[in-house]
Amino acid sequence: MTGGFDPALAGAATGLELADGRRVPLPVRRWRAAAAGADHWMLDRCAGPTLDLGCGPGRLVAALRAAGVPALGVDHSHRAVRLCRERGAPAVRGDLFARLPGEGGWRHALLADGNIGIGGDPAVLLRRAAALVAPGGSVLVETAGDGLWRGRARLLGIGAGGGGPWFPWATVGLAALPALARSAGLRVAGALHCGERGIAQLVRDAGHG
What is the pTM (predicted TM-score) of this model? Predict the structure, then answer.
């Protein structure tokens, strides 16, 4: 998640408005709770050092650390990093596209909670995530909606007009993910559809540089 999501973490915004008119609720309570439900499908596939991209309040980082798996959260939000650290989970504040610790050496990278939308270009973000993991590693992606949508979004419930500033955003459904994965040198190794949540494991081919 980005710094623009601070109002949601503070309880001042609970929804996301997309430029095409759709309104998407933000599961802030789930973000701030302990890992549960479909989260464990992701966590069970993290067998080594894991980087959580857009970690939010850190429930996944905390769960991995409790299981003995080295993990680090990254988020552009001051509030998210503070909340993550308060629960004993290590996190650094940074831009996902700037230099990050351990680049190219992580076993897994997480893009949970719809974070595949960060920056508005999922293909670029997946290439970035693939570059962060070692050959043979994986990127675990949580999807939302159907197909591929790119545009702008804003938080609802803040600002004089009822919404915050617009920012680039995207949504990706499970069906759209294989083509995006291939463009990043990744392949779909498994997927879960659980209610409104779709999660996929994308493996970086050992020969992909």
Answer: 0.93
209 falls within a domain = no
The tens digit of pLDDT for each residue in 81-91 reads 999 999 999 99
pLDDT tens for each residue of 12-68: 777 899 999 999 888 889 999 999 999 999 999 999 999 999 999 999 999 999 999
What is the rounded distance in angstroms from the CA atom of residue 24 to the CA atom of residue 152? Answer: 13
DSSP, res 56: T
* CA dist., res. 131 & res. 155, Å (int): 30
Work out whether the CA dihedral 75, 81, 87, 89 comes out positive or negative: positive
Contact 4, 165 (CB under 8 A): yes
**Residue 83 structural domain:** 38-149+172-204
Q: What is the CATH number of the domain that holds 185?
A: 3.40.50.150
